[in-house]
Amino acid sequence: MRDTGWETALRRDQYRDYCARVQLTSEEAQARAIGVSASYLNRLLAGERHPNRFFIAGALVVLGCAFEELFEVHARPARRRAGRRRSKKAVA
After folding, report:
1. Is the pTM of this model over 0.85?
2. Measured between alpha carbons, how far is 52 from 33 in angstroms, rounded to an integer?
């Protein structure tokens, strides 16, 4: 997948509110309804992962809300290119 320089973040509090509205109380039920694994959902809710396109599409359909209500888009911090080395400063 091509790196676009942007990352999507889940608004976890809003996600939990929408799940409560549609009576999806357990993470296992949420994962099954959205179509992702329970472990992936757990990492997502812990902030260890960013939502992929399958989670985004499934969550929007199951929870019946707009993208902006559940997700934020941020610029991804610039990464150093592989193979480039920092120059060492001479110690005087």
Report:
1. no
2. 16
